[in-house]
Amino acid sequence: MAGNLMKPLTGLAKHASAAASLQAVTTRSVSLTAANIPMARYGGRHTVTMMPGDGIGPEMMSYVKEVYKHAGAPVDFETVTLDPSTDNYDDLYNAIASVKRNGCGIKGNIETKMNRPDIKSRNVEMRNELDLFVNLIHCKSQPGIKTRHEDIDIVVMRQNTEGEYAMLEHESVDGVVESLKIITEASTERLCRHAFEWARANGRKKVTLVHKANIMKITDGLFMQVAKRVSADYPELEHNNMIIDNCCMQLVSNPWQFDVMILTNLYGTIVTNLICGLIGGPGVISGANIGPRYAVFEPGTRNTGTSLVGMNKANPCAMLNASADLLNHLKLDYHADLVRDAVFKTVNVDKVHTEDLGGQATSIDVVQNVLNHIKQATK
């Protein structure tokens, strides 16, 4: 899966909705599109933006560096620290500039203060500024993790730059607060077409759109209409739609009916956490934020894990899997396979599990086991 994250974007280029998102950059007499500017490489090595984030993020990033070192991955990190407690956004602008310069990044979750309405979410602002229009999460059961349901294999395509996360709220009169949900036809078509292209390219059979059009008749109604129109271009793929509340119940009772799912921003984060909970929790699955030009990789559930800081208990597998996705994105497939296989064997063969998976292993135990597999594979 990870090696094909960007593949459908090639097919999107012929569609006006995607082409409109590629801004031209003119340098003297040479005109480049944002999609064909090469990513930063120096001396044959890739430079990647690393944003540790809050909570356990810095600890997880130290493990990523150690794993890359032992895997021999030709990657150097440009570390950018973000401070979500201030309304000075210089740190955010520096992070965005760094990702634009390097082409991709890896990040921990950045905590947003809930009691400061004057401070915007740096996570959301970054996704908007970098046009990371889709959050792709491959939620697949791990054979070494005992759960109520087995053999789940669902790909979530979450809208990343619109919907309920527009951050457009205001108090119209005292005691009356309004929040705007933004849905546009062009962005919805781009998301849906990406999902169908990905499903076609990866041998999937069914695409389900999740909505609440029975209540939000105009916004989710448009979301549903566009998906239905796009689906006509992919007759070999089954397409259906499902109301979000029924979807949550169906995921718990019969998750095997789902294959690829398209969701708005809010529904996507709820469903992603639900599915990850079904297959092992927040410490296993990685996620990718993808746009026409840039990509940022992170754990699938975007959990800060603040209560686990410094305790050597946090599960590092989600971040290590995200780092493998990053290596695939850089076309370093050999190194990506080294890391991913080592994590897979640690979790599913050796069953070195942290407390969240019902085991007794520490974070360092897991990482050391991963390193042992990498060393064995590179002898």
Descriptive account of the structure:
45% of the residues are buried. This protein is α/β, with parallel strands linked by helices and 379 residues long. Helix 6 packs across helix 7 (219-231). It has helices spanning 8-12, 16-19, 57-71, 90-102, 122-129, 185-201, 219-231, 244-253, 265-279, 317-329, 333-348, 363-377; strands spanning 24-27, 30-33, 41-42, 45-51, 75-79, 104-107, 134-140, 153-159, 169-173, 176-179, 206-211, 238-243, 260-263, 286-290, 295-299. The protein has 12 helices and 15 strands. The longest helix is centred in the middle third of the chain and has 17 residues, at 185-201. The strands form 3 sheets. Strands 3, 4, 5, 6, 7, 8, 11, 12, 13, 14 and 15 form an 11-stranded mixed β-sheet that branches.
Write the layout of secondary structure elements.
Blueprint: H1 8-12, H2 16-19, E1 24-27, E2 30-33, E3 41-42, E4 45-51, H3 57-71, E5 75-79, H4 90-102, E6 104-107, H5 122-129, E7 134-140, E8 153-159, E9 169-173, E10 176-179, H6 185-201, E11 206-211, H7 219-231, E12 238-243, H8 244-253, E13 260-263, H9 265-279, E14 286-290, E15 295-299, H10 317-329, H11 333-348, H12 363-377
Parallel strand pairs: 4-5, 4-6, 6-15, 8-13, 11-12, 11-13
Antiparallel strand pairs: 1-2, 3-4, 7-8, 7-14, 9-10, 14-15
Helix pairs in contact: 3-12, 6-7, 8-9, 10-11, 11-12
